Amino acid sequence: MDLRSGLRLLRDNWLLIIAATVIAVATAGIVTSNQTPQYSSRVTFFISAWADPEDPASAYQGSLLSEQKVKSYAELLRTRRVMDSVIDDLSLDLSADELTAKVATAVVPDTSLLEATVTDPSPETAQEIARSIGDQFATIVPTLESSSGAGRAAVNVAVVNDAELATVPVSPRPVRNLVLAGIIGLLAGVGLAAARRALDTTIKTAEELERRAGVPTLGTVAADRKMTKTPLIVSDPHGLRAEEIRRIRTNLQFVDVDRPHKVILVSGALGGEGKTTTACNLAIAMAETGKRVILIDADLRKPRAATFLGLPIGAGLTDVLVGATSLDAAEQVWGEEFLTVLSSGSTAPNPSELLGSQHMRDLLDELRETYDIVVVDGPPLLRVADAAATAAACDGVLLVVRHGRTRQDQLRESLESLRNVKAPVLGTVLNFAPAPSHKSYGYGNLNTQRRPLAEVKTNATDVHASR
Ligand SMILES: Nc1ncnc2c1ncn2[C@@H]1O[C@H](COP(=O)(O)OP(=O)(O)OP(=O)(O)O)[C@@H](O)[C@H]1O
Ligand SMILES: [Mg+2]
Question: Which positions make up the signal peptide (predicted)?
Answer without folding.
Answer: none
